[in-house]
Amino acid sequence: MDGTPLSSSWLVHLRAYVNTDLPSSHQIEGRDAIAELISKNALSLPRLVSEMGDILTSTDAVMRARGILLLGELWMHFVAKPFDATILHHFAAFFAARLEDWHSLHGALIGSLALLKREKHVGVVDNDDAKALLKSALENVEVQALVQEDRMFCLEFFECLLVGYPEAISSHGTLFVERLCGIIDGEKDPRCLLLGFHIVELAAQIFPDPAGYIGSVIEDLFDLLSCYFPISFTPPPDDNWGITREDLSVALMHCLGATNLFAEFSIPFLLDKLSSSLKNAKLDSLKFLGFCVSRYGAEELRNHSTAIWMALKQELFSSYKVEEAISKERDNQTFHEALNCLQACLKLQAGNKDDMLSLERNSLLELVVEDPFINDFFDCISGHLIQTSARVTVCSTGNGDIALERALTTIKETGLILTMAAKASPASCFAVTHRIFPNLFNLLRPGICIKGSDDEKKFEGIPVKSSLWFPDDVLLTVLEVIRLIIEGVKGLADSVLKLQGTYSDVKWIGPLQLNSEDLLMSFIAITVSGLQNRMDIDAILIDRTWNVGVAGLQAVGSFPPQLSILSRVQYDYLFSFLKYITLSKSEATSLWNRTVDAIRVICTAEEHFSCQGLGSMFRDSLIASLLKEVDNYSESLPVLCSLKALSVLCTGGAEILTNSTRKLTELLCEDLKKFVRIASEEDNTVKRILPLSQGLLDYILPCCMKVDMDVEVLLGLAVNLWHIVENFPEDGLLKDSRDNIQVLQNCLGIVQICVFHCDAPSQRYLMLEIVGPFVEATSHIFGSLGLKDIWLIGFFSSMIISLRPSIHIPRAECVLHRLCAGAVSLSCGSVNLIASEAVGCLVNKWQSNGVEMQVSNGISLSIAEALDLIIKGEWVSTALCNQTGTACLEPEKALVLKMGCIKLLGYAGKGLAIRGHIGVSDIAMLLLSLVHCKKILVDAKQKNLLQFLWPNDEERLSIASAAADALGFIAKDLGSSGWRQSHLVIKPLHQQRFFVSMLAPLELVLKESEEQERIILYYAFANLISSIPANVILMESKRVFPFVLESLSALSSAEMFSTSLSSVLLVLSAILVDKNGAELASRHLSAVVGRLQSLIQYQYSVTVRETSLLCLGTLVALPYARVFPFRTQVLKSLTNALDDPKRSVRKEAVRCRRAWELLTR
Amino acid sequence: MNGSALINANPVVHERKERVTRREVHDSSAEPIDALEVFDHVRDIKDPEHPYSLEQLKVVTEEAITVDDKKSHVMVVFTPTVQHCSMATVIGLCIRVQLMRCLPPRFKIDIKVAPGSHASETAVNKQLNDKERIAAALENPNLSELVEDCLAPASY
Prior knowledge:
Chain B: It comes from Ceratopteris richardii (Triangle waterfern). Chain B: Residues 38-98 form the MIP18 family-like domain. Chain B: One of its GO terms (biological process) is protein maturation. The structure holds 2 protein chains of 2 kinds. Chain A is built from 57 helices and 2 strands. Chain A is an all-alpha fold. Among the domains of chain A are: 142-234 and 242-258; 567-652; 655-751, no CATH class; 1032-1161, Leucine-rich Repeat Variant, CATH 1.25.10. Chain A has a two-stranded antiparallel ribbon. By secondary structure, chain B is of the alpha+beta class. Chain B has one domain: GMP Synthetase, Chain A, domain 3, CATH 3.30.300.130. Chain B has a 3-stranded mixed sheet.
């Protein structure tokens, strides 16, 4: 050994591994080092074995075992490394021999398992080697006597053999089966059990012969397995394996279902366990029964069908359990599990294909269909119908209540069972529907006669009267059951299609088709009955009536066309009924909504089965009628409803939607053209344009966005509307009524959405189209803008807002100038805001992506220059249309104008802040000067604008607070600022940047200001801080803290600041719970306590009082020595809070007081 | 108390009532202190003997509390679990201390055991409403510690 050249490097590792005195980490390192060498091909396995000779043949059992374990673990490590067949063969023989050695069994097992686990492409052991391994294992290994880990390796070993070498197993079949029984007998470990169950399952599948190996021990095997049923296992709390009771239960279930040799034992066994009082046992038996029977096949089911049905009936019908029937607590889980089991069994019922009427004697299906429970069901219904027709009130006595309750339960349960049966298989579907529907409709038919019983005229006209029927609980439940059965049949249709691909043999739909007329009519009748009686019965029942009616119609109508149960005439009738409801929008909104949705479902069902049928034809005709309805503007169906219906119906296809949108936009354009020319508000156009524009905005356009509509249509709509506005007469007659402004807002919204969804080329085209006319049209005086100009500014602004950042805007300087003027101009108050927003968007997207904005003469304008343009404020004079400033304006108007300017600055600042541009500071300084009323922070170019905005004495407070609001607006996050998403250029953390940049100037102005001027500055501070995330504030807590304290005392002076006050308090509470913040607070504790003490008396806001108490309560967590001196003082001040008029404040006070009380202890 | 046998070894434990979340009133109208609010203060006091709240043992109920906000008066009638309960005075003391802390000082607080529920009813009532005896009791460190223990917020 010593002579080998490699000795120094790897024999050390080998020795480390076999040396049991070393800690296990060293051993593992040694093994890994050797594995590394082998994987690098620096060491071959034969070489290793030859070097290990001494160890492997040592008489020291421990050393020998370590040596073999090393080889075993190495093989496990190299499960995916290719080796050639010779090596594999040698090692297989080696491990097979070592299995005899009790001491080294562990390593040998690992090694054998590793060899069997290998996949084909890396070389596997051949069949003979596998046989040798198996033989040795069967002869030498006593599985039950091993420790858990070895048992598991052993089981895995058998599992691998069963999967990969079934012939090997069959060659030692008898011995294997004998061992197999031993393996499972008394096994307690969940991991081993999982494997054990799987092995039995595999073995049973390999030897299906009743006289085979498994067949001979099947009874013993079943006895061993059945001990585990029902599985009761609670995973230990520190379980790392994640095995649950369900895993074990499923494994056992698969094991029992593996071969039908088990059937003769397991079915009686499970039926017996079904009567157990343990809920788990019951549920498991039902689950096992369903699974096993479906695995065993129809033959086994036939042998046990009577027993199974009797047992299931026990579980299905609460009425059979007398004592439980009264208690309302029905065991839903058991019921559903029993239903599933029944379904699994019925699925096996193939039935006679040619003659579905003749049922096999004593088959489960026959037992179900001929069972008396169905007669009970009919008796319940007929009994009830006789009672109601005789006008005997059922609910008059207490007894009646119980009887009614029972009847309802019976009907519901039967309904669920029948539904399940209808869903199970074609044969059971046929049998159930054939048995149920004719009899059922014999009972119900008297109520269905709708109008004249003349056969030919039955399908003409719309039913207006449904006799006899009055919607009550029982009737509705029966109809619901019918609907459920139909849905069940539809479920079957789906699964048949999935299984067969087509519908070849569809006799099972026959009974439904035969009774289609009754089905259709009963649902129509109940709907009509609901309409007739809606004044007399309560809203919940009415709602349910319509629910049942429409859902039933939907179920009847939405069968796949090949299986359609309605005839053409019946379809037409159904559709005309639905159309009638849709087009006659009565007060029954919920019925209307449901009907529209049902139509959508019926039509989309057809698309689901990919064939064009009557449904889509009907939908198209309905859409046409709805459009006509809008066109004609009739009073019967409001325009908004038509558009809502259209939006629901159009979700089916992009094409229909495109067409409808085209038509609607034509109508809108038409209306808009007339809109300004017609003075009379009585005219239909004026009346229609409002709901039309509203509906387009609310229903149709959102729909368009969902289906990825053609850009052309959207662009067309925007351009058309623009051209109409462009051609407005100069002297429009529109009044500034609320409706008219709403129309304008709707149109602006429509344009904005349309342009937003246009792609870049269309937007570019649009800009070329509209900028010229806009600049031309607004070149004249802004002082007296006409209707046309206002609309133009609005439309133009909406389009600018929606532009993508990459779009080049021609004559940008002009555009900016005009938009600024539009934003403040007094004569277009309704579009001021949208123009301001447009300015914000414009500066936000200006020159991003390197695209330069060009001014009229072709020279590009940088963002800084654009900003200068805003700040110099020349547009103010354009808006004012004179050079004299505000002097000639009335004071109120001047103030409105100034406020508009400040708002505009806010928007422009926000646009810049969002993109993270430094220029925002110019605007912020301007605003801050206005808040502060001192011109210390501004430079020369801002003088002009500041001069204009400078407040006189009366205006001072309003201007200052408006400027403070504008600062707050800049700091707000996008979501809550009301700025619609519009392709903005957003820099992350822009809010934080802005906030931090504002702190220094604030400090400066606060230092310079007088006591009374500070209040408004603190108001601005509160605005700024209110929407900044807490962690940013905490990072700056040192700078922010003095502001917070000062603003708490400053802002408490007036009611108008109460909201700001509470947001500052929230900031304080965040600071107090932070570690650094708490330290700050403890240094200034006297000030903090003082402020909070006065705030708990703050009369204007409950929130402020509550929050200050909360803050006061958190103070006790500060260092004891600092807090304690304030205890008496605080407790004294809390006495008043305990008597607060508001309960929530008192509660908080009690909590706070308790915290301070406890300080002594 | 300690070491000796429990006075009521097996008290009947009742379910706690659902906590009522009151509708928030956002106007400025005053919300006078009512029985439920007072009950909220005392329901979670721990029984001196058992790890249950007074509510669970049905020692206090909302119905047995009368509040007159205008006249600044509160009356709490509590029912000891057994007739001869020597803890009745301690329970009463706990209730009083708790209410003294939670209610504004303008209130006069009367605490009584329910008529017929205690062997020495008059004596207990007298003791519970005697200012000096209350003050003296609270100066007793053992007793005040017991009271604080019962008042400490706990989760049952």
